[in-house]
Amino acid sequence: MSIPASFRDTLRRGLVLAGLLIAAGLPLAQAAPDDAARAAVAKLVPGLPIDAMQESMIPGFYEVLSGVKILYVSKDGKLVFEGGAFDVEQRRDLGDSARNGVRRAALAKVADDRKLVYAPANPRHTVTVFTDIDCPFCKRFHEQIAQYNAHGIAVDYILYPLVSLHPGADKKSEAVWCAKDRIAAFNAAMSGQDPMAASCPTPLTELTHLAESLGINGTPTLIAADGTHVAPEIALSPDRLAAELDRLAATPPTAP
């Protein structure tokens, strides 16, 4: 049984964070547990907003949620680690449930008129896909849009141009958004045609802030209805994605 590489990486970061905190010599022994934990976070990461703090499944630790960032803080405020705590028996990251909830709540606030929607008549599943017009794998995903729809999967696209990787993608996204027929313009752009330049008020800045707040830094990024971040190798296969969405729908939600 192996521990996922992503968890090993967060564990290494967590050990570094814990070492920094211990070295800081926080005088928290007399503080109440909740106050001590909050003070530890404030000293280690000044200004980090705490969205939620709750008892974790790790004895003696709180789970602290800031956006999709998870910190585990000992009740005496002396130990902190970031990222994930892996339950070997259940083979899951204990922070997944909290992160999924954050993504689910954030995406529920995005109105349909901020998306490009491709849906079959009676969808069985709905996914949100952050996409970049100049991203090769985004184009590959969109080439299969009819197959996703045939599997009963509705796709809600959110335009997320990564200008650091694809200079000009923001202008193309703006042109698509401002086109008279956005769907037709998006289809053409994803097939390699440059959209006709156009300018109008767009939600692109708002949606970029949303993506960044959710820790999304690549495209395509696919989020299932329950907030699960689906791996790219699954997302790019209509058959595998349909099977994964069926599995997620049949899996009872796990308590944080």
TrEMBL record:
Q: Which UniProt keywords apply?
A: Disulfide bond, Isomerase, Periplasm, Redox-active center, Signal
Entry keyword annotation includes Protein biosynthesis: no
User: Which CDD domains did the record assign?
Assistant: DsbA_DsbC_DsbG
Q: Which GO terms describe its cellular component?
A: periplasmic space
Keyword Disulfide bond attached: yes
Disulphide bond isomerase DsbC/G N-terminal domain boundaries: 30-94
* Signal peptide interval: 1-31
MF terms from GO for this chain are: isomerase activity
Give its localization. Periplasm
The Thioredoxin-like fold domain is annotated at 122-228
Pfam families given in the database record:
DsbC_N (PF10411), Thioredoxin_2 (PF13098)
Any stretches that span the bilayer, and where are they? none
Per its database record, what is this protein's job?
A: Required for disulfide bond formation in some periplasmic proteins. Acts by transferring its disulfide bond to other proteins and is reduced in the process.
Q: Which family does it belong to?
A: Belongs to the thioredoxin family. DsbC subfamily.
The name this protein goes by in its record: Thiol:disulfide interchange protein
Source species of the chain: Dokdonella koreensis DS-123
Q: What is the lineage of its organism?
A: Bacteria, Pseudomonadati, Pseudomonadota, Gammaproteobacteria, Lysobacterales
